[in-house]
Amino acid sequence: MVGYRAHVASPEGTPPVTDNQTISGDQGPPELNSGMPHSARVWNYWLGGKDNFPADRQVGDMVLEAFPSIVDVARASRAFLVRAVRYLAGEAGVGQFLDIGTGLPTADNTHEVAQRVAPASRIVYVDNDPIVLAHARALLTSSGEGATAYLDADLRDPDTILAGAADTLAFDRPVALMLMGIMGHVGDDDEARSIVRRLLDALPSGGYLALCDGVDTDPAGVAAQAQYNESGAIPYHLRSPERIAGFFEGLELVEPGVVSCSRWRPDPAAGGAPKEVAAFGGVGRKP
Ligand SMILES: C[S@@+](CC[C@H](N)C(=O)[O-])C[C@H]1O[C@@H](n2cnc3c(N)ncnc32)[C@H](O)[C@@H]1O
Predict the structure, then answer these.
(1) Which of 83, 90, 127, 279 is the most exposed place for a label (fewest CB within 10 A)?
(2) pTM
(3) Among the atoms of ligand 1, which is closest to the Cα of residue 42?
(4) What is the pLDDT of residues 231-270, one digit of tens each?
(5) Contact, 279 vs 212, CB < 8 A?
(6) What is the DSSP secondary structure assignment for residue 215, as one 8-state letter?
């Protein structure tokens, strides 16, 4: 069994508790390879963050030059996350979130958005990047009524994730599974679909999937992605919008379905029709 550490902020803790208990298989201190570009840090660079290294900025700039719209993709994906969580915690009434591929803390992290709408929301974050782990404290600022936890674990090991998440989430009540910008790291479609299916199988009826990922609709984006994948970073594979929609098979799609992230229930206050970006996503309910 692959080990993971859980860092938990619980409702009993005021201020929020950050503990460091090893739940299973302590792997020692995280290894941080700052000389190699990494998805979470390059993403942070495109979002205008400061938690990145020269190797990340170099690859980030290379992609930016070939595909300047990558900044719109990153921002629109993040804005989609916020609108999807707001919908799930509000209209859909889901009080629990399993956010796999969390990324570096930024403005409006999942627990902040959910707990603004429903303060008792419980969130488990999962990522396998040591620098995300190093910043996890910022994700553990739960409201007193709710809870947040962080698991250092790999998407490819759903059983370990589900076992760790069960300490914080009750899987007999609706949970929203969030896979934002992560499925592209699993290039093989069968493997990717099987991971999503295994995670969805653990959700009861009334659970949700919220997913958004890069698509291959823009030739400049496809060319830039090929360059990125040769940089030494863990490759990210763009899918067609139809293949993104395939992840929702068996679920009831929430309107407007699987669309460009910018066009999923856009904020009326933003005004006008949002520009399409090369990332598609949606929200689906398990019947
Ligand atoms: C592009 S970022 C997306 C961050 C965030 N979800 C967002 O939408 O802004 C992808 C994240 O997935 C994480 N990741 C990539 N492969 C992973 C894996 N196999 N297991 C867990 N996390 C992974 C990376 O470390 C990174 O933080």
Answers:
(1) 90
(2) 0.91
(3) 1
(4) 888 899 999 999 999 999 999 999 999 999 999 999 988 7
(5) yes
(6) B
